[in-house]
Amino acid sequence: MKRTLTLAFLALLLSLPLWMSSLYVLHILIMTGIFIIAAMSLNLLLGYTGQLSLGHVAFFGIGAYTSSLVSLGFDVHLLPDWRVALAPKPVWLGMLLGVLLAAGCGWVIGRIAFKVRGAYFVIVSVSFAEVVRLIALNWLELTQGPMALNNIPVLRLGIPDWFEFAFLRKPANYYLVLTVAILAYLLIQRLVHSRAGRAMVALRENEALAASVGIDVTRYLVLATFVSAGIAGAAGALYAHYVRIVDPEVFSFIYTVTMVIMVVTGGKGTLLGPIVGGLLFGLLPEILRAFGIPPEIQWVSYGVLMILVVSFLPAGIVPALAGWWQQRGDAAAQPAVAASSRPPQP
Amino acid sequence: MSQPSAIELSLDRLTIRFGGLTAVDGLSFQVRQGEIASLIGPNGAGKTSAFNAITGYIAPAAGSVSWRGKRLDGLKPHQIAELGVVRTFQKTSVFAGLSVLDNVLIGLHLRSKQQPLAALLGRVAAEEAALATEAHGILQFIGLAARLGQLASSLPYGELRLLEVAIALAAKPKLLLLDEPVCGLNPAETASFMQLIDRIRALGMTILLVEHDMKMVMGVSDRIVCLNEGRVIAEGAPADIQKHPEVVRAYLGRPRT
After folding, report:
1. H or E element that contains B224
2. Which chain A residue shows the shortest CA-CA distance from B170?
3. How many domains does chain A have?
4. Quick check: A216 contacting B, CB < 8 Å?
5. Within-domain flag for A55
6. Do the domain assignments include residue A258?
7. pLDDT by residue, tens only, chain B of 257 residues
8. What values do phi and psi take at A186, rounded to 5?
9. Contacts of A21 (CB under 8 A, 6+ apart)
10. pLDDT tens across B47-67, in order?
11. B35 φ, ψ to 5°?
12. Residues of chain B with C-beta less than 8 angstroms from the C-beta of A343
């Protein structure tokens, strides 16, 4: 049953550009997909290690700026007579460096925050995001500040001068985002279902007990921030080369809030949570618009829905649905469950 | 104990201070291999503080803790667990939001050597299966096998206390420190817990116990160390401790003369 649903959902996603001719809808789906990737990365930290990275957009922005700057090239003075210049490089290299630099920053944040948890982790992450935003805003020579980085090239894959595919049109970008989203999902799935994932959950549930059975809690928190920041950086890089303009606004706090809303309403600590929450809150305003509902009402209903989900399904939509599904299954198959709960003979 | 065996854990003039309060004051005692030693004493005598210092949760102000010749003071809790010194907590402490099986799987952390990269490449299925089998075995040993799919938070209190021990056993301790494991259990549960302690000892573990239930302490201990106000006031076999005048005084007060 679960398998059938998964395959049906994948088939829907894969076939969508074939029958969906509206470029506007594709654009919305691409942007939503990019945010879902970022939300999945936030979920690894918030849902599994239990640490709220309220500056998560910093990693997104670092991915976007790094990838843009590497593909555009830059020429800056670090000291009055010391210039650092970089000629434009292929976009794929920029994206890769964007992911690596974001992950590296995540590693540093994880190390700095090694003793701080809860509220203090929030403060460290928010401060980091603000510092990065101020750099993007004020280092005009590198980032153009509020004038933004323009004409960012699109991703091209293949061998130059022989065969190259440019991710210029919307269907191509849709498949690119979908591929990265699936890869990120599989990466997180494998991580959380391994020893490392159990260690992260142990940190969330009971840190003192986790340490008492030999879990080096800091090590796994750093691993989680590293992977999470890298995936957020990938989302940022996808954003930069799709929208093709990056300004300091990408570091806005509202983007972090959007990711947190997606994760919390969908169900933090579940693999599907950020996807469900992301689709709901990414597409809802557009669906309402399609019905001719004025923008004011769109935003009000967005807020009302959020409050309803948080008050009535505090664990999120996915855990609530899973619980309902399990109860239904238990009622239908009582003897089978009793038999399967018996331990296998070693 | 019929013959004295090697000293494994040794506390030497251990002192713990919280601000101006000296909780443990020059505490020295030893635990020998394979024995069940108990720390007793009135509330506030410094038993749990001593436990916390042995397992790295608080740093002693002075003195040292050594385990098989290695200094434990200065190490972090997870490093001490890696050496084989594993504790339980006075306040019931499990991973409440997870299933009983997952609780034990987390306890098996040290038994598994898989690296995050191997997990990302999907090369851990065999080891995961082995870990699950091992977790089943531990739950069977402890008597919680029927509960493995349940959320830990849904267990009754008596079984939660067993689950704590299961998590600690999963870390394969050489020295197991139990902090008031039968506190709050009824007499029948306490009696079966005493049998469990005997079975754990039969696995070759050394046990250091903090407990208020005197029936249990007298029943299972080879040796008892009695603390009062952060100092050892008596040390010896259960029968001697019961009659020791200092112990009687610490618990009951000074007889009127």
Report:
1. strand B223-228
2. A213
3. 1
4. yes
5. yes
6. no
7. 445 678 889 889 999 998 888 888 888 888 999 899 999 888 888 888 988 999 999 999 999 999 998 898 889 999 999 999 999 998 889 999 899 999 999 999 888 777 777 777 777 778 888 889 999 999 999 988 898 888 999 999 989 999 999 999 999 999 999 999 888 889 999 999 999 999 999 998 999 999 888 888 888 999 999 988 888 888 888 888 888 888 888 777 776 66
8. -65, -40
9. none
10. 889 889 999 999 999 999 999
11. -95, 165
12. 136, 139-140, 145-146, 148
Give the best residue of B82, B114, B120, B128 to mutate against chain A (max A CB count within 10 A). Answer: B120
Domain limits for position A133: 22-251
A200, A217 contact by CB (below 8 A): no
Structure tokens at A94: 């920029």
Please tell me what DSSP assigns to residue A45. I
A41 located within any domain:
yes
Q: Which residues contact A174 (CB under 8 A, 6 or more apart)?
A: A16, A17, A26, A29, A30, A33
What Cα–Cα distance (Å) separates residue B117 from each residue in A102, A183, A190, A204, A220?
A: 19, 15, 10, 22, 13
Q: Tell me, what amino acid is at A179?
A: T
Tokens for A101? 């630099």
Q: How many CA atoms lie within 13 A of B11 on its CB side?
A: 27
Query: Strands (DSSP E) along A58-130, which ranges?
Result: 74-79, 82-86
Q: Is B127 exposed, middle or buried (0-12, 13-18, 19+ CB in 10 A)?
A: middle
- The answer for residues whose C-beta is within 8 angstroms of residue A65's C-beta and 6 or more apart is A98, A136, A143, A149, A236, A240, A246, A250
Q: What is the pLDDT of residues B37-49, one digit of tens each?
A: 999 888 888 888 9
User: What are B70's strand-pairing partners?
Assistant: B67
Identify the CA nearest to A76 among candidates A133, A23, A144, A22.
A144
Is A196–B136 a contact, with Cβ atoms under 8 angstroms apart?
Answer: no
Residue A231 forms contact with B (CB below 8 Å): no
Tell me which residues of chain B have a C-beta less than 8 Å from any C-beta of chain A: 55, 57, 76-78, 81-82, 86-89, 93-98, 102, 105-107, 109-110, 112, 114, 116, 119-120, 122, 124, 128, 133, 136-137, 139-140, 145-146, 148-149, 167-168, 170-171
Q: Where are the beta strands (DSSP E) in chain A?
A: 74-79, 82-86, 156-159, 163-166
Nearest CA in chain B to A183: B120
Residue A102 lies in a domain: yes
Amino acid at A142: L
Rounded-to-integer distance, Cα B133 and Cα B127, Å: 10
Q: Is A83 exposed, middle or buried (0-12, 13-18, 19+ CB in 10 A)?
A: exposed
* From A190, A198, A205, residue closest to B96, measured CB to CB: A205
ipTM reported for the complex, 2 dp = 0.87
Contact B81 A212 (CB under 8 A): yes
Tokens representing A19 are 């029958």
